[in-house]
Design goal:
By secondary structure, the chain is an alpha+beta fold. The protein has helices at residues 2-8, 45-60, 71-81, 88-110, 116-142, 196-200, 202-216, 226-233, 283-286, 294-308, 348-357, 394-399, 405-421; strands at residues 13-15, 18-20, 32-37, 173-174, 184-190, 241-243, 246-257, 260-269, 273-281, 313-319, 335-338, 345-347, 384-387, 390-393, 423-429, 432-440. The longest helix has 27 residues, at 116-142.
Length: 441
Amino acid sequence: VSDYQALLDRGWRRSGRYVYKPCMSLTCCPQYTIRCRAGKYQPTKSQRKVVKRVHNFIKHGQKSRDDELDTANSTASEDALKNDVGSKKILESIQETKIAIEECKDISDKSSAGSTQFKRVEGLRKARILRRERYLEKLIKSGGEVKSKAENQPKTIATLIPRQNSFALNQKILQSDTNSTHKFEMQLVKADLADKQFMMSFHESFRVYQRYQTSVHQDKPQDCDIQTFAGFLCDSPLIYEMKDTKGFGAFHQQYLVDGAIVAVGVVDILPHCLSSVYLYYDPVWWGKGPNLSPGTYTAIREVQFTQQLDLPFYYMGYYIHSCPKMRYKGRFLPADLLSPTLLSWHNIEHCLPQMEAAKYSTFADIPVTGPAIALPSMEVGRVRLCVRDRLTSYEEWKGEGAHSEEVEQYHALVGQHLAESLVLRWGESNGENDSDSEEDN
């Protein structure tokens, strides 16, 4: 897992057991490694709405509607609270909104009949004021206290979602209230075909995967069969390790509603991050609710999981600026992008102008986030090789009269540390170099 963490920090990713690195300067759509600084993450307003919609759907089974104002009850509430000193602030706020509405009406009446844009702007202002009044009315009924904007504290994940999202292997952890319409649970299982607990839900998980691939990505059933699923998402080069109560390796984080899997987040838990590998979900269930946004919701839960694992970073795979579907990753702030040449991290908000101006950038003139990377000396002769089942070094192999530009390219891609940590298996056939190679972790 430490070696794979180092590969991630050089722009690599995995697909099943295979690891790969895009040729950034050659591809039409550069893929930048992106990470969120999980400890400082604060969900945006739109992200909070996604969480609220999902939880309301689980609790009520349908879209949550704003309560309509009951004029008679509102008047009675105001009369009852007129002599309550603690409620004066609320009443004053209500009066201010009513005055503002009247002012909007006066302005609208005075405006010319042909000023459509002006009327639209004023209509939006009125809608915003009415929402504020409804909010204040709810506070009156509940006996709450109005807070000024300056007093409002930044929202955190802890205020939005249950805290029960820790490393509890093979345990279904309840996420919903006891009186909810649906029972919502989460379960973490190893992504390991040899694990009995994982295999208990393997076929159900596969059916969700296939529905997702055929519905969302328009794949043909034969292109997302059970063998493809097993190789792509249920196998990895990572070796499971335990440290204290935390496990490292590849896992499936299952989202269950009424006992059935509705989504699965495939994640790698590594020494310095939680890395998101893939997400698949049941499009039928998530389509029942209004704009439930499974991608955003599960990403927020994975940031929370990162925090509870006490890991500093949440890696979200690749960020492709030219792909609109990828833009949501850039809204999990603060976030950094990896320079493809310097291997240093840079704040995405500073990188955006350069990506707007050109499809490829190294961010060389943008300040580095955190300490600068000290690149070690590159000694290609120390690359470890396995040739004909014999462990050797590239220097020793060259001394026998061999040479390979591919080995030197491999050295440049993985760096000095990994070139000495990993072993590159190299084959020979009929005295000529075989270009097929694989890395053993």
